[in-house]
Amino acid sequence: MTIAEQLFKEGMEKGIREGMEEGLQKGLQKGLQEGLQKGIVEGKRETAKNFLKLGFPIEQVAKAAKLPIEEIMQLKREIKGV
């Protein structure tokens, strides 16, 4: 193997290794962000369910939980088992 071929091979291996590391980091960051968003939404849904169980009106629950009225209505149906 010539020196040029060896340098090319080493450069390719380094590029692949660095690319994989960068891809892994980006993937982890994206996964963390998506997980946090899902957690926030789930927290809002649980809060809304608790308000509904306490008898708060749908409009107030939607406003307090910052969720659409349609979603609050769906949660109410789920609580009632419909």
Question: Could you outline the blueprint of secondary structure elements for this entry?
Answer:
Blueprint: H1 3-53, H2 58-65, H3 69-80
Describe the 3D structure.
There is one protein chain. With 82 residues, this protein is an all-alpha fold. The chain has one domain. It is 87% helix and 0% strand. It is built from three helices and no strands. α1 crosses α3 and α2 packs across α3. The protein is rod-shaped. The mean pLDDT is 92.
Characteristics of this structure?
rod-shaped; 82 residues; 87% helix; 3 helices; 0% strand; mainly alpha
Principal-axes shape call: rod-shaped
* SSE topology string: HHH
What value does the average pLDDT take? 92
Low-pLDDT runs: none
Which structural class fits the helix and strand makeup?
mainly alpha
Individual helix count: 3
The span between the termini is: 73 Å
Strand content: under 5%
Number of strands: 0
How many whole angstroms does the radius of gyration measure?
Answer: 25 Å
Work out the helicity level.
over 70%
Largest sheet: none
Total tally of structural domains: 1
